[in-house]
Each structure stands twice: as C-alpha cells, then as structure tokens.
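Sat 14:20. Reprocessing the chain from the morning session after the first attempt stalled halfway. Input below, unchanged.
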Amino acid sequence: NICLIACLGLGITSCENRLDIAKHGNMGSQESFYKTDEEADQALASVYLSFRSLHYNWYLVKNLLSDDSWCGGGSRGDNADLEKLNEYTFGIDHSNIQSLYSGLYNLIYNACLITDKVEPNTTEKKRCVAEAKFFRAFAHFELIGVCVDRIMWLQFFEIHVRELVFLDQVLPHVSDHFGKPFLELVEIFLVEEYLVLVE
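Finished this time. Tokens:
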C-alpha cells in the first residue's frame, strides 16, 4: 500500500508543471488590445477576412440583380434561390441577401474597431486606420446599393468624403502597394459615389 501511495504521489507531482500552459488566442480585452503596430495589423487582418468572406454573396447578388447575367442551370428550378434574385421575386428572407447584409455589417464593425481603438501615432497604425476607413466606406456604399434608401446614403456620402479625401496623405500609390487599398482606388471610389449622387 505504501508503494502504491508513493507512486501515485510521484505521478501527480511530476505532471504539475505541464498544467501551466499559456492560453492560446487570449488577446485580452478591447481596452488592452490595439496598442502596438502588430496588434493593429492583426485587427486589419480581421477586416480583410470579413471582406473576403463577402465575395460569394456579393458577386451573386450584384450580378443577378443587374442585366449583365442570367441565372441558368440544367432546367427550371435548378437554382431556385438564384432564379428569385434574377427575376426580382425574392423577399427579405432570401438567404443571399441576408448573408450579404450581415457580412457588410460585420465588415463595418471590424473596421470601426480599428478606427475607434487604434491610436494613429505610428506610420503603420496610420495605414491600418486608413485602410479600415476605406473598407468601412466600401461596405456602406455596397449596403446602400442593395439594402438602404437614398436619404441614408446621402448621410453616409458626407462622412465618406470627409474621411476619404484625407487618405491621400497615408495610402500609397498603386505601383507601391499591390493587393491593398491604394490612393488611386480611393479616388475611383469617390468618383463612383459622386456619379451615384448626381443620378
């Protein structure tokens, strides 16, 4: 019995240090995060993930509601939900519309976390905030095009112009920065918003 108790005692004490494992994924609270350049980049990666997640629904909804494409398939009813989009016979419960709507608001939320929490006191943080502002304006613009009325769009337009015209001091030119928002893209985006305004 004494031998058994001694073995159990050794077994328990020998594994004790293996229980001290650092938590994975614990980034702290919103108040303690967003302080360093690396944390700002991590937050921006979340914005890019939200943007990338939009592509499927955004592509289908925007194209099927236009006259640029026609929903087809092997036979009638092959793509019933997409046919509803194509023929304007859908309601607010349509899965692609709901996914696009929630995805755009998720993008806005992630971008707002950066613009609200990151103090732009370094070059890297300024770039992260500038890119977040661009993606927030993009999400507002797309949301208005699909889901919101024109009066609300005018309110967003004023905000976008105020924010985006100052990004030329932060964002690089296209030749310097492949795959991310750049100065010329912001200028094209503002022109598109102006064109929608005068329609």
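The helical segments are 2-14, 37-53, 55-64, 80-86, 95-117, 123-146, 150-164, 183-198.
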